């Protein structure tokens, strides 16, 4: 495990501690004659090797919050989370796979690096102070429960997936729309007693463009 000097913990907090204020009520758009086969949809999304998401992300914690733009590229074996926010810290990237987790600054320089099977958990715990559920959020942003642990799905009276409960987190979905042949939530809220994350998806594509 190595940790470069000159990287205050607050910088990673700025990367993840972002808050988007969503005005108004989230109203589910109804699609007459359309019935989503949720299990078939789940199987199709789990079969994807990669995807790209762009939008706005945020968090509110007891210590404060903020807002910023997000780019998430998820590959079959690794992921890259890039955030740009108004904190005077420029753009930051969090990269991780099953062997290591790395935080880079806007110039691409390594600021913090951890290795080992629990690298991401240790990096986040040491630099954020609360456990950002990155591995689960990979699935939650798609409107899926994460594999490997129990979950409870909640549906509206007319059959739309409204949210889920998993690993101590409450996840809410709103405004599903069709993107590249998949019905995807445009707004996702993830919260527990420590933090609330909110995400607006402006663009989602299966696969990662060159």
What is the count of β-strands? 12
**SS-derived structural category:** alpha+beta
Strand content: 35-45%
What is the highest CATH level, the class? Mainly Beta
Fold-level CATH name: outer membrane lipoprotein receptor (LolB), chain A
- Distance N terminus to C terminus? 32 Å
- Please give the CATH architecture: Clam
Globally, the shape reads globular
Q: How large, in whole angstroms, is the Cα Rg?
A: 17 Å
Count of distinct structural domains: 1
Q: Give start-end ranges of low-pLDDT stretches.
A: 1-33
Average residue-wise pLDDT:
80
Q: Write out the CATH superfamily name.
A: Lipoprotein localisation LolA/LolB/LppX
Main sheet specs: 12 strands, antiparallel
What spatial order of strands do you see in the largest sheet? Answer: 1-7-6-5-4-3-2-12-11-10-9-8
Number of helices: 4
Order of helices and strands: EHHEEEEEEHHEEEEE
* Helix content class: 10-25%
What's a quick, concise take on this entry?
The protein has 210 residues and is an alpha+beta fold. It is built from four helices and twelve strands.
Q: Mind explaining what this structure looks like?
A:
It is built from four helices and twelve strands. The chain is an alpha+beta fold and 210 residues long. The protein has one domain: Clam (outer membrane lipoprotein receptor (LolB), chain A), CATH 2.50.20.10. It is globular and about 50 Å long. The model is unreliable at 1-33 (pLDDT under 50).
């Amino acid at each position: 495990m190595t940790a470069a000097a000159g990287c205050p913990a607050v910088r990673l907090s700025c990367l993840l501690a972002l808050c988007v204020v969503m005005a108004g009520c989230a109203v589910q758009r109804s699609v007459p004659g359309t019935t989503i086969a949720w299990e078939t949809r789940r199987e199709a999304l789990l079969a994807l090797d990669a995807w790209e998401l762009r939008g706005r992300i945020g968090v509110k914690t007891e210590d404060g919050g903020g807002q910023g733009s997000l780019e998430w590229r998820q590959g079959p074996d690794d992921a890259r989370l890039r955030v740009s926010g108004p904190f005077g810290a420029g753009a930051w990237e969090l990269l991780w796979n099953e062997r290591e987790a790395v935080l880079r600054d806007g110039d691409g320089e390594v600021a913090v690096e951890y290795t080992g099977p629990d690298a991401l958990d240790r990096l986040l715990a040491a630099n954020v102070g609360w456990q950002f559920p990155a591995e689960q959020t990979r699935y939650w942003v798609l409107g899926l429960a994460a594999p490997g642990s129990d979950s409870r799905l909640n549906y509206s009276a007319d059959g739309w997936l409204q949210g889920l409960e998993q690993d101590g987190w409450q996840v809410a979905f709103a405004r599903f729309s069709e993107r590249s042949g998949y019905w995807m939530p445009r707004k996702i809220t993830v919260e527990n007693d420590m933090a609330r994350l909110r995400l607006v998806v402006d663009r989602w594509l299966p696969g990662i463009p060159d």
